[in-house]
Amino acid sequence: MxxxxxxxxxxxxxxxxxYYAVQSEKRGFDNLWITDHYNNRxxxxxxxxxxxxxxxxxxxxGVTNPFLVNPIxxxxxxxxxxxxxxxRVVLGMGAGDVTTLASTGIEATKQLSAVVDAIAIFxxxxxxxxxxxxxxxFQVKGTRFNFKPRGQIPxxxxxxxxxxxxxxxxxxxxxxxxxSHPKDIDxxxxxxxxxxxxAGKKMxxxxxxxxxxxxVDKKPDKAMGxxxxxxxxxxAGSPNVILERHGIDLAKADKIRGALAKGDFGGAFGSxxxxxxxxxxxxxxxxxxxxxxxxxxxxxxxxxxxxSPVGPNVRKxxxxxxxxxxxxxxx
Length: 331
Known about the structure:
Blueprint: E1 3-8, H1 14-26, E2 31-34, H2 43-53, E3 58-61, H3 71-84, E4 91-93, H4 98-102, H5 111-125, E5 131-134, E6 139-143, E7 155-159, H6 162-171, E8 174-177, H7 182-198, E9 207-216, H8 220-237, H9 240-245, H10 250-261, H11 265-270, H12 274-280, E10 282-284, H13 286-298, E11 303-310, H14 314-324, H15 326-330
Parallel strand pairs: 1-2, 1-11, 2-3, 4-7, 7-8, 8-9, 9-10, 9-11
Antiparallel strand pairs: 5-6
Helix pairs in contact: 1-2, 2-3, 3-5, 6-7, 8-10
């Protein structure tokens, strides 16, 4: 049976994000993902507050990266959370957004190697022993905690490119596929299968997760309107090969990139086309969303994440999902 996750961006006061987390747990969501960007509230402060006020939902950063936060510190944070909420913590790890990292003065080079090194260090440190590791990007020598972690924590790898998807299938417990369209999911699952087979694993060993941009409302126009700003940023950050896969005019994508770079958000959001909306989000009424989710499940998804913006009114959209979306797939 498919699991349902939900993503929140901690851009508002911590109590509001925690409120949404509590509501999501009560409304039947299985997983909670909190984004990790330096320009929002701290992901681990938010997750710690969530741990206190929830009882069963599984949660973690979705996703952190090894460039802005050293893998040792990520391990310390997750191990500490796992003491607060035993067995409910997972790690979402990815390469990070190059543009966002560049604004901090960090050059995200050797991304695949950095993620592989970070996960190796994470798992080794959770053994509670002294760790020495020589990687292509990260090295540690005789590093250990002064406390005993509870044990291993599942690792989900955020992936979009072919090599990262294959690696995620090979070494990950789960894969967070940043996509909302069957074409992209089909491609991603094929790459994940390669990694799974190379590692001698089975696809059932990996939680294949569609990490979508999602917006639901009883009025489709309202749902679409809430999603268009998110889609603009997705288009701007997508490599041309993905845009071409969906038949999107590269000149129009460049226009959005240019508008965002100048801070012309109205121009960028207004340039989002119906074809872009179809490619990069799931938005509309519950029935419209259910049809699109069904197409992703046929491609091999085992967890569906309701990602930003969730809907024009987050609280009402969570209720709507719990009443007309989740039951459609769990009954």
